[in-house]
């Protein structure tokens, strides 16, 4: 109980959905549960600031390493990384913990997973806070067709070919690979012709202002152990995901949601994202939506931790207050 009271991080694994899922937990086990879903290339540690803030407010913060990451299982088959598998892991985790409904917070690939948890199983989500990646409804053709128009220099196109990005990443030590992504401050992830994206990205010589070298080392240790193939397989399943989600064509997300976007996020200008968010296009697909655009880049929950914590807590508190007055 002392660990729960102080917000200390507790770590454990659960055998669910055919894999072993590693989970970091903080806050009282009886508090309202908040599921924190990380992105690429991260792990549960990317939520360290939010876990502390949520625990201090009496929430139960649950941050799993998604399959392919950290101390969770790393299936060898690329087909094991479909959106059904990833969302299925989260539903199985809730069942394992006997949690009927939770709040969900997602960032980057975790944003996609969180949106689809809301889409597939709205009965399991009280409300959602999503960072960085808006919900795009399923289009008439897979997004990979749109990406193909950007050519071979676009990072997602480079990630499609099994082994290609892994070989390119292998020219650098793991910490440098991670730092190149974490330091992103460009408009689009497109390399010059004939250049691999990892060669194009720059790793600053000084520590990141929002991450210590010790924290970077914690990330690097896990990616050194498992490599990058599992995380890259998420990208390699994009066309499969489009086929699998055909039953949800035209479906809207009805879960109450808050979308937080960094005004300097990479990709904001790509695919009409900024116009889609600011013009109300996103809200038409997520009717019960709030949008907050704040200063910062892509890895918002770490770079602007205090502001993001404030945004998350203010949104979640509304639901706690609604229950109290009910």
From TrEMBL:
Keyword Hydrolase attributed: yes
The protein's Enzyme Commission number: 3.3.2.10
GO molecular function: epoxide hydrolase activity; hydrolase activity
Pfam families: Abhydrolase_1
Reactions catalysed: an epoxide + H2O = an ethanediol; (24S)-24,25-epoxycucurbitadienol + H2O = (24R)-24,25-dihydroxycucurbitadienol
Involved pathway(s): Secondary metabolite biosynthesis; terpenoid biosynthesis
Alphabetical list of InterPro entries matching this protein: AB_hydrolase_1, AB_hydrolase_fold, Epox_hydrolase-like
Swiss-Prot/TrEMBL keywords: Hydrolase
Domain AB hydrolase-1: 32-304
Gene3D superfamilies (alphabetical): alpha/beta hydrolase
Domain of life according to the entry: Eukaryota
Protein task: Epoxide hydrolase involved in the biosynthesis of cucurbitacin and mogroside tetracyclic triterpene natural products (e.g. siamenoside I and mogrosides IV, V and VI). Cucurbitacins have cytotoxic properties and exhibit deterrent taste as a defense barrier against herbivores. Mogrosides are nonsugar highly oxygenated compounds used as high-intensity zero-calorie sweeteners; they also possess pharmacological properties such as regulating immunity, lowering blood sugar and lipid levels, protecting the liver, and acting as antioxidants and antitumor agents.
Family: Belongs to the AB hydrolase superfamily. Epoxide hydrolase family.
Protein name per Swiss-Prot or TrEMBL: soluble epoxide hydrolase
Gene from which the chain derives: LOC101785084
């Amino acid at each position: 109980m002392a660990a729960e009271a102080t917000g200390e991080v507790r770590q454990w694994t659960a055998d669910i959905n055919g894999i072993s899922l590693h989970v970091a937990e903080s806050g009282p086990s009886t508090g309202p549960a908040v599921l924190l879903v990380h992105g690429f290339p991260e792990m549960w540690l990317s939520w360290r600031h939010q876990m502390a803030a949520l625990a201090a407010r009496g929430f139960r913060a649950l941050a799993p390493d998604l399959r392919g990451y950290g101390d969770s299982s790393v299936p060898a088959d690329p087909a094991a990384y479909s959106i059904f598998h990833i969302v299925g892991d989260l539903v199985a985790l809730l069942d394992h913990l006997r949690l009927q409904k939770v709040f969900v917070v997602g960032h980057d690939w975790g944003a996609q997973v969180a949106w689809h948890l809301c889409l597939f199983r709205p009965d399991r989500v009280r409300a959602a806070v999503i960072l960085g990646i808006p919900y795009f409804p399923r289009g008439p053709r897979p997004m990979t067709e749109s990406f193909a128009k950007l050519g071979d220099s676009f990072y997602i196109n480079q990630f499609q070919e099994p082994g290609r990005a892994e070989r390119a990443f292998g020219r650098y030590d793991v910490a440098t690979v991670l730092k190149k992504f974490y330091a992103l401050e460009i408009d689009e992830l497109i390399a010059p012709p004939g250049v691999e994206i990892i060669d194009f990205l720059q790793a600053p010589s000084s520590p990141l202002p929002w991450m210590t070298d010790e924290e970077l080392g914690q990330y690097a240790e896990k990616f050194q152990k498992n490599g990058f193939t599992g995380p890259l397989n998420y990208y390699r399943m994009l066309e499969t995901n489009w086929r699998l989600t055909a039953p949800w064509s035209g479906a809207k997300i009805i879960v109450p949601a808050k979308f937080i976007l960094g005004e300097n996020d990479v990709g904001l200008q790509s695919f009409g994202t900024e116009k889609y968010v600011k013009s109300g296009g996103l809200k038409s697909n997520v009717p019960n939506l709030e949008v907050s655009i704040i200063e910062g880049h892509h890895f918002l929950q770490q770079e602007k931790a205090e502001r993001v914590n404030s945004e998350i807590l203010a949104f979640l508190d509304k639901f706690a207050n609604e229950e109290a007055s009910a």
